[in-house]
Amino acid sequence: MTTGTCETCNPSTCDKTCEAKGPTTIPPHELSNIKRVIGIMSGKGGVGKSSVTALLAVALRRSGFEVGILDADITGPSIPRMFGVRRPPEGTGQGMIPPQSPKGVRIMSLNLLLPHEDDPVIWRGPLIGGAIKQFWTDVIWGDLDFLLIDLPPGTSDAPLTVLQSLPVDGLIIVSSPQELAQMVVRKAVKMAALMNVKILGLVENMSYAVCPDCGKEIYIFGPSRAEEAAAEAGIPLLGSLPLDSELTSLCDHGRVEEYRGPLLERVMEFVKKMDRQE
Ligand SMILES: Nc1ncnc2c1ncn2[C@@H]1O[C@H](COP(=O)(O)OP(=O)(O)OP(=O)(O)O)[C@@H](O)[C@H]1O
């Protein structure tokens, strides 16, 4: 790899540990003033990465922060649906103004540009990477305290584009209690290390269910491995989240901002832990 051109670099074989990463990050739109960029990543699909992104946005917004979500999960976008946002961004001569959720979270997702929400996006890697970069360079995010990036699962082209081209301040890794998910956490952690991106911590989602009658915690997928997985990967554990069918239902109906259940308090705690790390 030569300094300044890490676009085509393979970080797992590059011996320079991405020292070119700094110079190649691209500037945001000139009318965007973003204080912190946080990526939400998972080693594998379906562990609740988008739900954790949405809850983080809700928690931050309720704490009075200006928040945006860049949905980089181009082929499987779910953020607009969770927030009930269908309006496309407003195009101006200068760029795109992202639509806002009812509570004021600014959202940009490819789904907002498609004629129908269920139209598939059958794109190859370079096109996907190009779209993600445009959501950074061509979207007028305005003044944001936090831009959350919902990354596609795994360690493929799209997360690589984000980590190489956008100035990500920290990553949150979402996992579920199954052993397989732990193995892929280690992959995600190694990728972040290769890209020199700080990991803010691990969140174990769907860790347990709470019995509605007696309040007992039931470990459906077996005992939580969150502490063990975080220690093994050498990253802080932000916490474990229970299963809550109210969250599923509100996400399905575009009303995640109305959620007031137990996961939100936990996510508020992550936010405080993240702040203490700064
Ligand atoms: N803690 C939870 N309690 C109840 N339902 C949950 C929880 N976390 C996620 N879900 C539900 O599980 C499903 C998958 O979640 P989500 O879309 O957030 O996963 P993901 O990891 O982003 O998936 P993908 O890999 O497709 O991007 C959704 O229907 C969501 O509402």
Automatic annotation (TrEMBL):
Positions bound to ATP: 43-50
Gene3D superfamilies found in the cross-reference section: P-loop containing nucleotide triphosphate hydrolases (3.40.50.300)
Pfam family, one: ParA
MF term (GO), any: ATP binding
Source species, domain of life: Bacteria
UniProt keyword Methyltransferase present: no
UniProt entry keywords in alphabetical sequence: ATP-binding, Hydrolase, Iron, Iron-sulfur, Metal-binding, Nucleotide-binding
Gene Ontology terms describing biological process: iron-sulfur cluster assembly
Family annotation (CDD domains): Mrp_NBP35
Family: Belongs to the Mrp/NBP35 ATP-binding proteins family.
Quaternary structure, from the entry: Homodimer.
Function of the molecule: Binds and transfers iron-sulfur (Fe-S) clusters to target apoproteins. Can hydrolyze ATP.
Name recorded for this polypeptide: Iron-sulfur cluster carrier protein
Gene name of this polypeptide: ylxH_1
